[in-house]
């Protein structure tokens, strides 16, 4: 039988961003309507849509060879899996999310210990129980089906909730008193699958191409022509790590410089390149960057 | 302080149908954007949006005086609450839903006992555990975050899942081997609140008007004129329970008949009324029916 | 085997209006997604979605017992079917549509005879051929797949096209020189089916209820109280055909008048009823009117 | 030439609600795409869409015979027009709007006089200037093209702005220090047109039907059967102004009661009617109410 | 008079994809609302929207100089036109479509001959008639206005229908017993127009640019730096046809390689380039490729 | 305190195009919901959404350091501001807009002087008053709240209105008799701010990057390989201003040519490059062009 990699794609809020990332990395995944088994244009891969919350559980048992999920849910499931790479591509921002302990703004709670004997609502029940158990603080942890941040103080005393900027917590008049964990998306693999040479290489290629596509999102190409006399001045403007390619032109007084830059610095760099004697400066988009 | 009833409205799939029902019953609830505390045009009521899954838990503790949720989630939470009335108004159909035990079409499982030692995925973990424990069948029950029906056989052996028509189960090539429970929406009350006279009356009025609005959905008014000579023939056509109102007209050879009918029978009844001598037959819509 | 009526529902532009009409008449038809065999809440009927253009063909062969389609397509197919009733319920207007012969505004064509030897594009090829053959005018009739009105003069000389108001023809700078046919929706039946007593009665009930629902669209109920002294004046205001019901009240100086009116005249009638001494005038909506 | 009433319909935020109101009152107005001259199903009326801000100006000059606009814009234009009736039908609420003087929350301004020498931004420039001139407070009033409430304190010192609930002002951290005017929609007429008998009667009918449609929005019909013995008890439950119609039934122990009620009280009245001995209580919707 | 090319653009399902293709090829076509004569930013071209089904007919008569349509409709119309180039750009896939003969899954028909005497429904009436006539199989071919695949066995015995993957046929429980034709989009020209030198060159440029834009859809640019020592290893990784450009760098130990690749192989090639010693690998998008 | 540039972004029809332009220039501006103070990914800039009509007023007073608005509104406000650069990026076309004097098609007005004593409606009241005052033509200029072009002749005699193609004026049967002004978007600065060195440099960088992003919209990159023998022929095909870069290849018989071209000429240039001996011609998109 041909080699086949069983790959879990996160269903839900991450799904569209994940399919988009795979497309830019070179794999088109078609998730048609209600099917949980999307097709992929690679005969060596078999996809299944699985909730991020359950992904690690099924990668651990080997039902899946590999999958994408957050560090938070790996820990919640306490799963023994191989962490292949971190992938920071979530839509809204490219920062890690945090799971925090939050209490009503006007409560007297200041630290985890103050919650002894209280009720804490969270989606992350097992991790939260272990956290408080390790600190020997007795609390009641209740599973919350959603809208956790509106519950205190009417329905519970405190919550453990995920947040990026804290704005939803503030809007609900909650105050953060502790950060329990930071989390980002991981490509994980089943430990047994990762000892299979073919699967390990396949997963490695996936990792390289996904990272190449992510890198291209924040980088651009820049080309310019430079009189030889100004070349050092121009190269000094470029960031140390950009390793520009300098090539000869038929007109031997000039050289062409081609380089890769973080998009975020381009608006500072171009005016300085021009001041340093560069001309014909052109920025062009990239699809993948593998340094 | 004025009397106030704390009322839980089910968040999620039932929400729009519930707000619509309340509107037809006489209460406008405005659920603006992301707020979980919708306003209501009744100063004696305070609303909160709560997941159906958690409603019974918070009505039991008294955080809410009353709420709407399914029988299934009352049982899952094993909550001790007052069941005031059943309300059958769910959007798609007006039938009860069923929680069933389903297995892969081509598996050998035929009855609950065959699942001894197997893994069952479900959203209704506690109820399912009690069900199998009572039958002394040892199974592993796993919480499922959704898409339960795509899991067998790859991710589990069987599932306990909710269904109306069974079509989603069939589409996933699953076979039902047992019905564990039927469920419909309930208006429930906190037991202590229900001993408070004001609250009990308020809940009773709510119940009467909600039921009046539900009844009006499937009933219509019918008016017709009938020559006195044909009145018995016409009345014989009307269903026994419709108790028509017969009133005198200025033209003393005729009477007017006004009645309430199930909408479902109108298409049969009108042709027969006409055949029996009725004329000027008019059907008109109703907003509430309290018999 | 139980009796069953095979009923064709027009697929396409009339479909939504037809389903809505059936719903108001008492039959709910669920056309889910791409299925051409919608379900209906009447075990005695079996529905199929069929293009209006082909309906008469399949009612004629008996593949369907009955169906709804336009007079135009019955004639185009030259089908031998029973015409049960006309049903004027199309969304935009409630007028008949016309099939007209149209030529470029600035052409010299003035009458059908002027088109001898010319090319005519139309969707209604067979009917158009017969029309010109009967007049002994030799023309070339070409089937048009759509956008017929943009074709003259570049792609053909004249067209036979359907129109309600003529505005699309004018916008394309075309001039009507002849009306070939008027058309409206018909409920048709297979001739053999129509000799079956059960089917004939079933089709008759359908016809009565569909017409009752159509009538209710343009009529309303009106109730008012009238001092006996003013009754004649009030009745004189009401249209001759409205046959109002006059009933006694407990207060014997007053009577109650209840009547059905065309909605279009209400805005004229109410001010005159009030001037004639009516009071407490109330208009209410109707769902069906079977006089 | 036939009589014709030139009627201005407010373009913009009130437009949809206005067309809907006219439809319920008995006039269908078709505002197709970009045309400012919608068609209406009444050959005696000619419509034009005109901004509410400019309506009174053009009714005053006689370019329009009548129109709908707010009291605020009549005063802003200082127009000499006939006010025929108030019409309270705006979508969000049915309350009057207010034009208020608002200042930054944390400013020291407490009353209009404190703004002497300051800059006030508003859409209602002329009215505001007259207001402050009458109080002999010298201010600079600047026309604001929109988003007035975000301007203080960066772009101006205070604003005169319209508000229903004040929530937008609060959200922009503004504090109301004075209410300058309350406003609601008016049907206005040109003074000369209003002396023309035909036009005055036509405008009067419009006014009656528009008010009849508005009244029907908040009222419902209620029918019930009552044993004669309980009639007084039942009638005592009904609000004083509802003037119920009581009619005889063939069964002489019973009477039928039919009445019109404010929808807002139905949820209180029905339980009390039932307690008083009413049965077969039915609520039905109304389209127009002209008492 | 200036030279002008009359060009037919396919109206309907291909339209958006066609306009998008022309835009990428360098021509912006604006199809505003209902007009069938879109504007184009090239004074030498005049566009008309024409149904793919009729395109060949009007190119053959010379009403159009050139146009885009499928091979299937050229054959259905039996048109004598110049086929300039094939263009495979349809949205869903980039494969040819097939017209197949399909019968009910559970019928006994196995080959075309089995349909002698039967009724076949299809949109491709003329081609189908010729096909069966050439095989001397007598069948009745009926024009189908759409939804052809739901007709057997109720409304006909077999169908000739277009399909890409066969999934719609399978969903309707039909079985393919013969492929009659494969089809893809063609740029066609009127034979007389194609002898005009100016028109032939204009059509040739169109063909080159359309093909250049199509090629760019599936290809990407790849740049990398390579130590001279590894150049052969790197070049061996690249597909034979990619003809990479190798250029000198100022640092004479390194060269820059720039090449065009099929996007489909990039995910395989990049890991191997890196293994062969390439670095700074960058993929960039292309707009046109003319080799 | 750190340096900070207060920048006005035009609210309304230009807003989306402006945010898109800034994004391509290197600045991401997030305008969340109803806030008028969008965030920007540059700690040195503070944004405010301001109507184009009011922008110049607030840049003149120094409430803003810089802003984008049309030349028309600078003149309407008669503001004394620094004009930094013109930016032509409006969505529909990239032409200047015109403010014109228009009269009813069938009126006798032929020149501005003919309007002496008449009423002119416009949004540009002050500029229009100055225009007619300078010509000593007495007119009444009325502010128009919108839909200006439907007003003549019913509500006014002539209008001064903005237009790109004149099509809206023609559709309202108006005739242009004079162009009063042409206008395009300007980056403007407060005169005092522009003497501050840091602010002037910051505004200069903004100007360079915005212009670089605009230039890239209409230009593309083109690469091709050329046998040395054909190089002159190839270079002759390229537009004089394109200044191509010619670089050596390892295969010394060939050179690589890389150049920037107006996208509009590519469809003409590529066929001629190919005819001149170029091969492997590739067009690629650009993000910024700073020559």
From TrEMBL, chains A, B, C, D, E, F:
Keywords: Amino-acid biosynthesis, ATP-binding, Cytoplasm, Glycosyltransferase, Histidine biosynthesis, Magnesium, Metal-binding, Nucleotide-binding, Transferase. GO terms for molecular function: ATP binding; ATP phosphoribosyltransferase activity; magnesium ion binding. Its EC number is 2.4.2.17. The keyword Glycosyltransferase applies. It catalyses: 1-(5-phospho-beta-D-ribosyl)-ATP + diphosphate = 5-phospho-alpha-D-ribose 1-diphosphate + ATP. Feedback inhibited by histidine. Belongs to the ATP phosphoribosyltransferase family. Long subfamily. PANTHER family: ATP PHOSPHORIBOSYLTRANSFERASE, ATP PHOSPHORIBOSYLTRANSFERASE ATP-PRTASE. This is ATP phosphoribosyltransferase. It comes from Terriglobus saanensis (strain ATCC BAA-1853 / DSM 23119 / SP1PR4). The gene is hisG.
